[in-house]
Structure formats: C-alpha cells, structure tokens
C-alpha cells in the first residue's frame, strides 16, 4: 500500500496557507480547498454508501521519542526502552505524531471514498503524564488546531470538504483537564475557530454558549448531535449537576429537547455522540447522576428519533445498556427528593486495573437482565391469545410476562450506547466503521452535493427558521408549564420546591419503533473493527525472547506495557509498512451472532455475556457456537467448555429458570442476591471467579475489549 499523499502534522500550518480560500459565506460547514488532494468521486456526484467512521482518543504527543522508556513519569519522553516508531502498544504512553499521520493517511487511502461522514469523539491532546514537561493551555489548543486542520485536509478534495466531520470535546482538550466552566468562555470561543470547518455557521452562536451543535450529515434525513459531555462529567469541578436551571448541564438538555423535537417534526433521525460515555454500573459511574437520569429519560421520550449513541474516552471496546426502570424523578426535578449517589466515580483516566473491575461489574449487572429470547416467545404467545380471547381479559397477564420485563416486543425498556476503543495505543490503535441501512435512500443527495448546491445558489435562508424555532420553543415551554400545573395532584404540591423540568413529549400513540429498535432505514446494521498490530509493525520486539516475560507492569495509575523490560532489536527504527487490518466484524462473528445492532440484538448478547456456562445451556447460545474454531484462542476455550457446549445443543424447556409471570419472586430473588453479594463481590472476582464461571462469549467479549492484546490465560486471570 503506497502512502504518497502524506499530511504531516508538523507542516500543516504552512500547507494550509496554500489551500484555505477565505471565510464561509453560508450556513453550511466551512469548506477547505486543497490543491493536492484528488478523489475518484471528487468531480461526480457522490452516493450514499451506508457507512461512517468513528475515530476517538488520538492523544498526539509532540514530545514522544522512539526507543525511550515507558515507565511512569517518563512517558516515552526520555531514557532508554521499548517505545516503538508508531507507539508503545499496551502502555500508557501517548501517540507519536507518526501514528496520527499514518492513521489519517490510511483512512484517506482506504476509507475516505467509502464513508458518508465521520464522528470524532475527542481527546486530541496529550495527557499530563510527565512532570518535567507539564501541559499548557496554548499547547493544547495548538495541537487541537493542527489535528483539526489535518482532518479537514484528509476529508477534502480539490473543491473542498467532501465528507462531513463531527467533532466533540474530550476531557484532555482543555486545561486544566476535566474542568470546563459554564459558557460563554474563552475555551468555547477558541474552539469555535478551531472547528470552524465543521460547525455549521448558524450554530456557532449556540456552540460558543455551551459547546453543543449538530450537523445534518444526510440533509433532511439524519443529523449527528455533538454533546458537550464535560458538563455531564462527574469529574468536572467547574459545574454541579443537570438539575438546576442555572447549570450548563440543565441548559444542554433543554437545548437537546428542543432540537430532538425539531427532528421529530421534520421526520428526521439523530445519532448522539460525545466523549465521556454514560457508563454506570451498580457501583461506579462517570456522569453526575442527575445528568444520567435526564439522558435516560430524554432517550426514552425520543426513542422514535434516536438511532444510537457513540462515545470514546474509556479506550476499551464495549457497549452499555441504560435501563429506563432506573429513572428516578427525584434526581431530575430541582428540590424534590434525595440526590445522594450510591456510586463512586470512575477515575478520569481509565487504567487497565480499573478496566478489569469495571468490566466485571458490568457483567454482574448483565447477569440480571431478562432473557430477550424468552420475552419474545411470551409476547408472541400472549398476542395469539389476545386475538382469540380478547384484549382486556388477557392484557393483564401479558403485562406480567416478557413485555413488562423488556418494555414490549422491541425491548424499548432499554437504550444502547457503543463505546469505541482508541487510536492511542493503550492496547492496539483502533478505528471503527459502522454500516447502516440506506434502503430507499440510495439516491438521496449527500451532504457535499447539498452544501455545494447551496453555495452555488448563495446559501440557505435558514436564520429565519432558527429564530422561529427559538420563539416556538419559548411558547412550548409556557404550554408545558401550564400542562404540568393543571395535572398536579396533592403529592406534587407537597414537593413543589424549585422549578419543574419541561419533560419531552413521548412518541405519538401508534408511532412505530425507531431505528434503534426495529430494522428500517438508518438502523445500525453492524460494524467492522480495525486495528494496527504495532508489535508487528514497529518490528522492534522479539516476541519469543528470553529477556523477560510479556506481562504488564501496571498499577492503578500507570501501565508500562507488555514490553517494558525489553530492548529494541534495532539501533535505529526499521518499521514495517503501516496498515490497519480487520480485528473482527459483527457481520460474521460466530460467537456474537449479531444479525444487527438493534437494542434487542445487543440485549441478547449482553444477557449471554452475563450468564454462567450452565445458564448458557438453557437456550441462550445456539448450537453453532460449539462448532466455532478460529485458532489457538478459541481452541483453548473449546477445550475447557466441551461439557457446556454439549449441553448447549440440547436447550432446556425452561429457558430462564424462573417464572416470568411472578414478578414478586423476581424481586425477592434479587434482594437475596444483593445481600449475598454485599461486602465481598470484588474479592471473589479477583480470586478466581468463584461467583461466575468463564464462558466462551465472555472471554470473546474480553478479548475484543482489550483489542486483542491479551492472551487467553490473561483473560482468564481477570
């Protein structure tokens, strides 16, 4: 693979001077022009491909030096050690600029002409990992400018930007890290300029106010919303919560409510993106609880609009399920109820050690999920009964079955969040390409064609529409207040301290499920995960050497990586050709067995991950799982799971092991589980998984969580 058109970050400022041609004149995304770029589709109308790129956490480090130490407080800046040409994989060192350049050039050569848009979820500056080279605000902003310019150049042709890019803030894109004060402020104003190529002009005012905006990546069909999750992040000491009207988090959700309603009225759908994800287990969380509560409520109310949610920050490949049964209005409305959170905040820089405990807690939570397979069967049988015996008579029983546990046949009780692994090689550098359904949209005008047509016509007259929307929002706010007053009961009056929150309207009665719940245009079909095997590409470490083992020297604060004690085999770097390769794809993964990325499909996968091997025998894993064989990793699992696989071929009639219709028994069982698990849950997991046995699907999930950098034995030791 040739890399002739290299975009060097350290030379981007002088390069840009040759192809930036003035200020934007329309409400579209500002278009760069670059003489050196060409494209097979640059002079003809682009078509939708039904694919988009998610890239996150580049963490470029201009001080990174090859063959330096990966140890704590050195961070690949000096000394002697195994730091490779393209990065020190499996360590906490940041990315050399060579890795960022190589990544963007690989994307330009292999993905640019095959994708419809890009979501870029933040952290485009180095960590503050070296006391001898502290971070400064001007350096952080300068690096973000360089990266933004490189993105604009990568996704442009000779006429300008051809692929819309939607960025969002990372907690390391500001100084001090994690701390962002309410807007307007100098940071937001500066990023308005840094991202002028990507933020629609008519939204720059709201971006300066709060750091939020959206882009219609498929005009009149699909918008990507860039959320400023720093106002939700529990580590941001500059803000308090999302409950009080004076807080930027409150204002952010108010803005989101208005815009999603606008999407609904226009018949559009939305993808939500952010940096810090709404990660939340029984014992840990990343967001302030009031923000998580509002987010979950908003997604429930706009479940007909939201296609999916995509985040970064955590570096590990996994997904989340928000449960709407956890919605508690005492966390949402100011002055009502208690707000003390029972969860501890997940550390802002996720170490390997904390990742292990977090994933185990996630699995524990998933072990309690209802079985979506059984829920579907119950719902179907109840539906047949209703047809013959009347809806009223059997409605009550149906409610107690799978429907009440899943939220209907499409599992609308739950919401789905995807968290992509990072480019920074804490594991291996990663990219993700999602595929989505474009049935019936094949001839829809693309973003670039629409923008260039508008440019030629002198631009859209959208300002009046936005002003009208703002006025309409104010009117709707008053109407909602009156409605809430009218519907108040005695209990409401007793807890009426503080202002009440405008609650989004749910889908109209009879509205079909949205793309997140039922396959239709814009539904996420699957994704392909790419990774760069830096151990092979750097060509510096002898993997079978006897100069030490390959285990990490890690602590809760720093990980020196697998090769911390090894010496490079070349005095001067001799890297192999850089390329990303497929790590896995959900389209043919024989263990995950995902037919799509709807909530129900992912709920079933989460349920399987949460079960023990004996539970898997009860119809949770289909017969083909026992036939899966893909090298040493799967063979080792198969050797230990032979008995379980034999059971899997004969599913039990009682697939769930508990009565779906007896919710009281469920509650009592849950109470017993909680009592039993109190005070020693972590220790049990750290001492050999006495509570929950390893299964094939769990180990497979872990393997990908750590981007194929861990052996089977290491995964079993979690």
From TrEMBL:
Enzyme Commission code(s) on record: 3.6.1.10
Catalysis: reaction(s): [phosphate](n+1) + n H2O = (n+1) phosphate + n H(+)
Single GO term (MF): endopolyphosphatase activity
Composition bias type Basic and acidic residues, residue spans: 371-383
InterPro entries assigned to the protein according to its UniProt record, in alphabetical order: ASMase/PPN1_MPP (IPR041805), Calcineurin-like_PHP (IPR004843), EndopolyPtase_N1 (IPR012358), Metallo-depent_PP-like (IPR029052)
Compartments, record wording: Vacuole membrane
Ranges for region Disordered: 371-407, 473-519, 612-696
Entry annotated with the keyword Heme: no
Entries under Pfam families matching the protein: Metallophos
Comp. bias (Basic residues): 384-403, 672-694
Biased composition (Acidic residues): 626-668
GO biological process: polyphosphate catabolic process
Residue ranges of every copy of the Calcineurin-like phosphoesterase domain listed in the record: 51-313
Keywords: Glycoprotein, Hydrolase, Membrane, Signal, Signal-anchor, Transmembrane, Transmembrane helix, Vacuole
Principal cellular location given in the protein's record: membrane
GO cellular component: fungal-type vacuole; vacuolar membrane
Membrane topology field: Single-pass type II membrane protein
Signal peptide range: 1-22
Biased composition, class Pro residues, residue ranges: 501-518
Protein family membership: Belongs to the endopolyphosphatase PPN1 family.
Purpose: Catalyzes the hydrolysis of inorganic polyphosphate (polyP) chains of many hundreds of phosphate residues into shorter lengths.
Protein name according to UniProt: Endopolyphosphatase
Source organism of the structure: Daldinia eschscholtzii
